[in-house]
UniProtKB/TrEMBL annotation:
Keywords: Transferase
Matches recorded under NCBIfam families: PseI
Protein's name according to its UniProt entry: Pseudaminic acid synthase
Enzyme class of the recorded protein, top EC level: transferase
Domain AFP-like residues, every copy: 294-349
Enzyme Commission number(s) from the entry: 2.5.1.97
Name of the coding gene: pseI
Phylogenetic lineage: Bacteria, Bacillati, Cyanobacteriota, Cyanophyceae, Nodosilineales
Keyword Transmembrane included in the entry's annotation: no
Highest taxon above the source species: Bacteria
Amino acid sequence: MKEIQIATQLIGAKHKPFIIAEMSGNHNQSLERALDIVDAAAAAGVNGLKIQTYTADTMTLNINTNEFLINDTTSLWHGQSLYKLYEKAHTPWEWHKPIFDRCKQLGIIGFSSPFDITAVDFLESLDVPCYKVASFENTDLPLIRKIASTGKPMIISTGMATVAELDETVQVAHNAGCEQLILLKCTSTYPATPNNTNILTIPHMRDLFNLQVGLSDHTLGLGVSVASIALGASLIEKHFTLSRSHGGVDSAFSMEPSEMKALVLETQRAWQALGTIYYGPTDSEQKSLKFRRSLYAIDDIAEGEVFSVSNIRAIRPGYGLPTKYIDKIIGKQAKTTIQKGTALTWDLL
């Protein structure tokens, strides 16, 4: 499986998980808060911080009726128009450079999701190191071509996409010049629940497309992300905020700093635990072998005395004969006097 390189970071099975904090609209229209989010993400140990590049006008029309309203009563954004939601959530373009500069200062990778071709041109002027395609844009083939033509790594969330749609998207990206591509398993509900996340898709997707695969995780907590590492995910993206209590368009399903720090730690532990297929004692287990059970004299045994369950037994430590030989030893005679607590060896029979 080909490794991916974003700036100085390598992404793949041989490297610890690449963790992305997604700011989205959690800046609540404050640049100061946006920069505080960058600071908190870096302190939590993430590898990258992602924002989104669009305006309400590049996303939709300023219409407050019919299909331009969010009518789903279960939605976090029920009752809002698309235009008003995107107006509230967008990151002003003049903030991008200060945010990316802060990322560089703190040693993390700053990048963005462009939502139309003008956003790609703008991000190119800032020389971003990579691009992320949101699930809702993963079938926008003109946008995919535009991003791919930059020659930079591309991360694509796969929410809602069929296998046929993903195949078309991957082929378009490759044909347009993208040589480094990562797919993210994603469920496009906000929040998502563990039972509709289907992370068993991760190894299937990886084998199907022969690409690095990660997870864009909209569930609450750490469990789904940590489990995905065991299935081969090499990248995790989670929405991030300073505090859910501060509100905001995405705060309800975003991680707080202490949770993000735990995610970085626990996904790294999960990755370390994968190891290799291995049987037998590891180097670190060699000292523990002595605590296996083995055969010992549990009473003083005279020369010529018959071994029986009354004078020998399987106990710890493991310096004596393996316990599997007890039936062969019972009934044999002691060759010499044996003191209680002596490990049995063949030369004592």
